[in-house]
Design a protein that fits this description.
By secondary structure, the chain is of the alpha/beta class. Helix content is about 40%, strand content about 20%.
């Protein structure tokens, strides 16, 4: 669209030159390294150079071209898993042997996002995350990546990466992410952070974090999906009426608290709203993918981004009831677009 106006055999290796023991494993001819490195960067909101411990996954066909793949602020390095008996990665349907991002053809690199606490900084920027990835590429001996595939916050970092290191990436593939946050989305995240800070001040951190996540879920998903899933009658339980959507939201909040802490959430949420990249500084060929039901990243923002990017850019529009989370929920629709963009 153009807008105009089998189980892997685990083997622990010896200590690396940077003091870590990476774990390498193999499955069906694919290899993976799940490890960490000390990397030196200078945070945008820090007080000078620092070293940060960066956790990464690098997996796929040996010696194949590398792709960077990054997701939203709650995504981690485990974008995929080579172990069919283990937990799948957060994008397993699209990143696997024979999938759209085919690990038999590519080698995928992903990191855990760094937080302000890890940097010793007042805040963490999308530029900081880009600098971490660039430093990691240097440590791993990767001169250039074939593509940076970013979704949500990952798309923001991809733009920052291409603006700062244009010679280090051939192309961008950006899903549900733009050059700046939309002010309405910033307002919604600001309320979520306020809830968490209130919980910190009252000693109810877990409850506050769960409630913030519940509120976030109402922004990630589309109205049509909620209308279809939660239209049944309320149920009388424990002395009050429970509305159909409440169990879903409470479960989402509870699961988030089990794997995330408040300070990390605050730092990464704020990082989204501090993000600003001048599209005119990005010369990289880019494929944008947007969803009309996405209320966090409206299509109008992607149209503006398409017009302003310096490199050749296409915009693909995918109809989905899942809102911003469509990049997680629509693998069948996204697979051909990803294959084409990476070809």
């Amino acid at each position: 669209m153009t807008c105009l106006a089998e189980n892997p055999h685990l083997e622990a290796t010896g200590e690396s030159s940077r003091g870590f023991a990476p774990v390498r494993f193999a499955a069906d001819g694919l290899t993976a390294q799940r490890s960490s490195r000390h990397l030196a960067i200078t945070p945008k909101y820090g007080r000078g150079p620092c070293e940060v411990d960066v956790r990464y996954l690098w997996c796929g066909a040996p010696d194949a071209p590398t792709l960077i793949v990054q997701g939203g602020i709650s995504a981690d390095r485990d974008v995929t898993s080579l172990d069919p008996a283990g937990n799948p990665g957060w994008w397993q349907a699209l990143v696997a042997d024979g999938a759209a991002i085919d690990l038999a053809r590519w080698r995928v690199l992903a990191i855990d996002w760094v937080s302000p606490q890890e940097l010793g900084a007042d805040a963490v920027s999308s530029e900081d995350q880009a600098d971490v990835l660039a430093a990691l590429l240097g440590e791993l001996g990767i001169g250039k990546v074939h593509a940076f595939v970013g979704a949500s916050y990952g798309a923001m970092v991809a733009l920052a990466f291409a603006a700062r290191y244009p010679d280090a990436v051939d192309r961008l593939l950006l899903l549900a992410g733009a050059h700046r946050p939309h002010p309405m989305a910033t307002a919604q995240r600001s309320v979520q952070r306020g809830i968490v800070r209130l919980g910190q001040s009252t000693g109810e951190v877990d409850q506050a974090l769960a409630l913030a996540r519940q509120l976030a879920m109402t922004t990630y998903r589309g109205s049509d999906e909620f209308a279809r899933r939660f239209s049944s009658e309320p149920a009388w339980r424990d002395g009050r009426f429970h509305l159909p959507v409440e169990d879903y939201l409470e479960n989402a909040g509870r699961r988030f608290v089990e794997r995330f802490d408040a300070e990390r959430f605050l730092g990464l949420s704020e990082s989204i709203d501090l993000h600003q990249v001048a599209p005119e500084q990005v010369p990289t060929a880019t494929t944008l993918i947007g969803f009309p039901s996405d209320r966090l990243v409206p299509l109008a923002d992607l149209c503006e981004l398409q017009q302003r990017l310096l490199g050749r850019t296409t915009l693909e529009v995918v109809e989905s009831p899942y809102g911003h989370d469509a990049f997680l929920k629509e693998p069948e629709l996204l697979a051909p677009l990803l294959r084409e963009a990476l070809a």
